[in-house]
């Protein structure tokens, strides 16, 4: 991995980048997001944690409208999320997303995966796109795998390619939907290291994860969700050492002591 | 014993099979294009398109091909004056037959491709949308290429069926293999031999198709 020694930019109020107001969503009878208010500042790293079924993945997916919402508003960089169509596609290009199951395009090589969006969405010319793709692949440490197909890579490598693919679009914000949950334990760190580097470089990130170590070391803020609600928001140190809500105490006691 | 085979010159034996090949190739290409468009309609987010695609497939695939082919000639051409730009009756029959074969076969191509689309994991489309591809880009660049590769086998079946279905074009006077066979059977005594010759001719056309596409299907399979 290339060593980039960029100190983390000062997060202090460079503006609100992602604003969710009063967001509600139902899956049938299940009220999966209940009156969610959440504001993420430019350059901020927010980690969303909580028990399974608490709505944290759904929350993450509503931000680029892979899930629609029933009521409330979501704005990115001051602009409300458009409905379907070209405007929505344009917005999604500015929001990078990394999935639990990687979702690399199975019929394209690693290099093509990272070039596709640049060429088809950003209209970058092929040569520049390839240059950028190769440098991003080097940056996430899979430069030597550029000509392989996704199925030939390990899970950790695939996920790093997926991160490179998202970064190739120069996103304003990156969404990570449980990026390490499908990985073998020994591959989790290689992905987390890339994410940590990204955080240090000042990328705005929303990370849904069960990796408490990552939350402690990289997050500016921890958002704890349970039963479709945001129960607690705090800086990591305060949240992990001194959670205020009973729900968070209960959750932490189950995951931290073994 | 095979003397009679060279007694025919309108069409000749080879000429008749060449007509079968032309009907198959042109209808094959046409139905692949139209069938893909129908499949795109059936998965599109626009309800009107979905409705049209569904209605088309369910109506057309349930009508006998003979009825469709005869309708193109007696209905489209004779009543509605659709001559497909042909002044000559033979050319008109040829073009109408292709129209009918495309209309019919596309329904089966559509369903094969749609089942292929269902084999592509949802995450592929989500990832494509997440990098900002539009619906049609997602379909063209991500979903259909993977869907096609997984349905080469079923499409080979459709192509083989199409090759044999071209014989129905004889009903509107297209001089292809079955047309010649009927003529020979009327004039010659060796009916079993005639049948065998034409059966063999079709096997020669379809067997390599099946083997080649089977090989292609394995070669192009998407590894997950």
UniProtKB/TrEMBL annotation, chain A:
**Annotated source species:** Streptomyces muensis
According to the lineage, what is the superkingdom? Bacteria
Query: What is the annotated signal peptide range for this record?
Result: none
Instruction: Name its cellular compartments.
Output: Cell membrane
Per UniProt, the enzyme's principal EC class comes to translocase
Which SUPFAM superfamilies does the annotation name? P-loop containing nucleoside triphosphate hydrolases
What is this enzyme's catalytic activity, as reactions? Answer: a polar amino acid(out) + ATP + H2O = a polar amino acid(in) + ADP + phosphate + H(+)
Q: What is this protein called?
A: ABC-type polar-amino-acid transporter
Coiled-coil regions listed in the entry = none
Pfam families assigned: ABC_tran
**Enzyme Commission number:** 7.4.2.1
From TrEMBL, chain B:
Q: Where are the transmembrane segments?
A: 16-41, 62-82, 94-113, 158-180, 192-216
Query: What Pfam families does UniProt report for this protein, alphabetically?
Result: BPD_transp_1
Q: Which domain of life is it from?
A: Bacteria
What topology does the record note for this protein and the membrane?
A: Multi-pass membrane protein
Q: Which GO terms describe its molecular function?
A: transmembrane transporter activity
Compartments, as annotated in UniProt: Cell membrane
Recite the UniProt keywords alphabetically. Answer: Amino-acid transport, Cell membrane, Membrane, Transmembrane, Transmembrane helix, Transport
Write out the similarity annotation: Belongs to the binding-protein-dependent transport system permease family. HisMQ subfamily.
Under what name is this protein listed?
Glutamate ABC transporter permease
